[in-house]
Amino acid sequence: MASSYPQIVLFGDSLFQGAAGLSDGFSFQAALQAQVLRRFDVVNRGFSGYNTSNALSILPQILAPPTPGGPALKYLKPGAKTLTRSNKFILFGANDACVELPTNFQRVPLDKYKANLARLINHPTITAHKPKIFLITPPPLDQIRVTVLDRANGHPAAARQTKLSATYSEAVRQVAAKHPGVTLIDLHKALMDRAIQKTPGFDPKGPALGDPESGVRGYLEHLLPDGLHLSSESYRILYDLVRPHIGAEWAGTKDEDRVAYVLPDWREAPWLSEDRYLRGKSL
Question: Has keyword Hydrolase (predicted)?
Fold first, then answer.
């Protein structure tokens, strides 16, 4: 039977779909894949425009139940019992947080959004694999920039609002706190902290960057070029948040460069002793 690699699944909206791209010499997905090469396959299941209700409807189509020959959602560390499970990152909310407009129908009310996240975490198709689950907060929103682009695209007003989007990020924090074993990745806070740090003179006690009430985009201009999607710098920040949670099982171990490989290092391969034997016979 062919060896199947355990998977890291990036399940989300356009923010994960865009994680496969290369911008300014950096790709989030490629960086993550390089970190776990020969141990995990990083699988991108980002769907632009999708919300959590859409995610629930397609989940059975993108993740199969565990099978003997299918992609494993756990792996065996050599010489030990199963110590690590695969990882599943969930990043939805930017579309759920849309406002109600006649030109947009992506909105999912906040209470339903929280319920949908809980259903995703506890979905039988997911729990059957016993993965490690990471919930990522949606990033901040630059409503000042979004308003200009949305009106240019035919919306009567901004389809998203800074204050409303922030409540969806807070909802992710609450859902993660209620589910033991789920790890929170607070992208919203990390990006806003960077933006405030890089915006001289801005008072964080007042209205947020990107909020029309503050009238200041500040460094969000660099982190969210269109007000919504991540720049390469933002993807680097996301990777810095994720990186410490991946690979702890082999970090710092002897021969960590090849511990937990699905297939053995060439120096440890079972055919090596046979090759040496054959070479010895030929002498």
Answer: yes
∠ Cα 228 143 170 (to 5°): 75
User: CA nearest 184: which of 50, 89, 47?
Assistant: 89
- Residue 66 CA: distances (Å) to CA of 72, 172, 184: 7, 27, 25
For tokens 């003997």, what's the residue?
A: 68
Can you give the pLDDT at residue 178? Answer: 98
Domains and CATH numbers, the chain: 7-249 (3.40.50.1110)
Residue 80 has pLDDT above 50, yes or no: no
The pLDDT tens digits for 111-141 are 999 999 999 999 998 998 889 999 999 999 9
Cα separation, 231 vs 25, whole angstroms: 12
- Interatomic CA distance for residues 222 and 207, integer angstroms: 19
Q: What are phi and psi of 29, to 5 degrees?
A: -65, -40
pLDDT of residue 279: 54
Bridge partners (DSSP) listed for residue 88: 9, 133
∠ at Cα 214 (112, 217), nearest 5°? 85
Q: Residue 85 — pLDDT band, cuts 50, 70, 90?
A: low
What are 23's strand-pairing partners? 26
